[in-house]
Every structure is written in C-alpha cells, then in structure tokens.
C-alpha cells in the first residue's frame, strides 16, 4: 500500500490547482506579517509544505529571515537593557 497516495476513505485525492495570484497572496500573508507558515496554511486549507514552497519560490525568504532576526535581536536587547 502506498501511504500518502490514498486518502482516509481509500480513494486517491484530487490534485487542486491554484492561480498564480492565489499563490502570491498566500505567500504574502506569511512574508508580510511574519506569521508562521503552519497558521496561514491551516487558515487557507493548505498543506504546510505547499505553502512553504510558495514562500521559498517567492524569493522573499531572505527578507523574511532578516525581518525575524531583527525583531528577535530587538527583543533580546530590550530584555537585557
């Protein structure tokens, strides 16, 4: 049995297709707000890995990491100060 190809009811799932605009907007919700991929994916009914790929492909992962790092660095500085 091929795990992952068969759904709960024993039938292979259908592949959903998303427009470029939907993918960009979904990735933007993660990038612009800094919210976790898991939260945004759950709200939109997406698989986390799918949304993660869209975010990565958007080319904004570096900017997102820098933003998160800057926020964490500021918080750390305030807690020490």
Strand content: under 5%
- Which structural class is indicated by helix and strand composition? mainly alpha
List SSEs in N-to-C order: HHHH
The helix tally amounts to 4
Largest sheet: none
Shape: elongated
Average of pLDDT: 80
Q: What helical percentage do the residues reach?
A: 55-70%
Radius of gyration: 17 Å
Question: Cα distance, first to last residue?
Answer: 58 Å
Poorly predicted parts: 1-6
Strand element count: 0
Helix-strand blueprint:
Layout: H1 20-33, H2 37-44, H3 48-57, H4 61-80
Helix pairs in contact: 1-3, 2-3
In a nutshell, what does this entry contain?
The protein has about 80 residues and is an all-alpha fold. Helices cover about 65% and strands about 0% of the residues.
Structure notes:
This protein is mainly α and 81 residues long. It is 64% helix and 0% strand. It is built from four helices and no strands. Helix 1 (20-33) packs across helix 3. The longest helix is centred in the last third of the chain and has 20 residues, at 61-80. The model is unreliable at 1-6 (pLDDT under 50).
Task: Output the keywords.
81 residues; mainly alpha; 4 helices
């Amino acid at each position: 049995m091929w795990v992952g190809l068969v759904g709960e009811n024993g039938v292979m799932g259908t592949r959903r297709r998303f427009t470029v605009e939907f993918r960009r907007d979904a990735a933007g919700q993660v990038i612009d707000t800094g919210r976790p991929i898991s939260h945004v994916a759950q709200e939109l009914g997406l698989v986390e890995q799918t949304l993660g790929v869209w975010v990565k492909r958007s080319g904004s992962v570096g900017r997102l990491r820098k933003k998160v790092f800057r926020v964490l660095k500021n918080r750390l500085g305030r807690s020490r100060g």
